[in-house]
């Protein structure tokens, strides 16, 4: 479903602030893969997702999604193919619009917009069912402005919006990092349920090594802009956090994992 070949990206090249974020990174995801991505600060994780989403052009390499080369495709055209949930719950939704209006916008992603009535009765019933599946009581608050929701409710809504029209690739960029542990667990469980139900190909960045092991069928670890560890299947299921730290140290050539990685 996704093929990345020799991706390179350097910010501020030719200056004292030059920073190589992606260093000849290659990665292939099969259809339906749920891949957790872990790594220390500055490893290139968010840069990888931004490059796939088209936030900025890569210096070299190629990005192929479902057989289509979208290396030079502008960000707004990739949006019809991708779903993305950000770390900040305030991103990805329109705070002054109602819950059902936000869902209607997501349902029309990639389509031409006209002057028809915003949300039909049939759509509203469909949204009520989908919201009920979240188990947060949002199905009875569809006329509520999104800006009045809690962080966890808003993030769950953003996840629903990102997957409302089955994307070819779902990008989860530390989407539970700003939530309290109990809410984060709820959003993670919802994420896995939606991914498994719809068979979505997914990349999920996390700083939590336990979550990286517990979710998905494959785990990759990044360091210095490239993939240094790639574990899948039964091998992944048998991983423990100490195992992961040891393997990261061996693969990266560093004695210790990043502090933020350890604290998570």
Structure write-up:
It is a single chain. The protein is of the alpha/beta class and 264 residues long. 36% of the residues lie in helices and 23% in strands. The chain has 10 helices and 10 strands. It has helices spanning 45-53, 75-78, 99-107, 121-134, 151-163, 181-198, 209-214, 233-237, 241-252, 259-263; strands at residues 2-11, 19-29, 34-39, 60-65, 68-69, 82-85, 169-173, 202-205, 218-223, 226-232. The strands form 2 sheets. A 6-stranded mixed beta sheet has the order 6-7-8-3-9-10, with helices on both faces. The chain has a 4-stranded antiparallel beta sheet with strand order 2-1-4-5, covered by helices on one side. Helix 3 (99-107) packs parallel to helix 5 and helix 5 packs parallel to helix 6 (181-198). The protein is globular, with a radius of gyration of 19 Å.
Tell me the layout of helices and strands.
Elements: E1 2-11, E2 19-29, E3 34-39, H1 45-53, E4 60-65, E5 68-69, H2 75-78, E6 82-85, H3 99-107, H4 121-134, H5 151-163, E7 169-173, H6 181-198, E8 202-205, H7 209-214, E9 218-223, E10 226-232, H8 233-237, H9 241-252, H10 259-263
Parallel strand pairs: 3-8, 3-9, 6-7, 7-8
Antiparallel strand pairs: 1-2, 1-4, 4-5, 9-10
């Amino acid at each position: 479903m996704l093929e990345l070949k020799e991706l390179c990206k350097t910010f501020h090249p030719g200056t004292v602030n030059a920073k190589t974020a992606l260093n000849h990174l290659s990665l292939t995801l099969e259809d339906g893969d749920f891949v957790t991505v872990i790594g220390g600060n500055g490893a290139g994780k968010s840069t990888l997702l931004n490059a796939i989403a088209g936030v900025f052009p890569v210096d070299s390499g190629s990005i192929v999604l479902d057989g289509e080369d979208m290396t030079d495709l502008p960000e707004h055209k990739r949006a019809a193919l991708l779903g993305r949930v950000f770390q900040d719950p305030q991103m990805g939704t329109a705070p002054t619009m109602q819950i059902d209006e936000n869902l209607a916008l997501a349902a029309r992603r990639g389509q031409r917009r006209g002057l028809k009535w915003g949300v039909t009765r049939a759509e509203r019933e469909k949204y009520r069912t989908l919201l009920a599946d979240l188990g947060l009581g949002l199905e009875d608050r569809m006329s509520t402005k999104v800006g009045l929701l809690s962080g966890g409710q808003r993030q769950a809504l953003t996840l629903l919006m990102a997957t409302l029209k089955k994307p070819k690739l779902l990008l989860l960029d530390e989407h539970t990092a700003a939530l309290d542990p109990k809410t984060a667990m709820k959003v993670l469980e919802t994420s896995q349920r939606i991914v498994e139900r719809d068979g979505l190909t997914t990349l999920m960045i996390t700083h939590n090594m336990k979550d990286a092991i517990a979710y998905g069928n494959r785990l990759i670890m990044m360091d210095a802009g490239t993939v240094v560890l790639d574990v899948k299947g039964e091998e992944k299921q048998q991983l423990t956090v100490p195992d992961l730290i040891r393997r990261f140290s061996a693969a990266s050539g560093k004695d210790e994992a990043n502090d933020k990685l350890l604290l998570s």
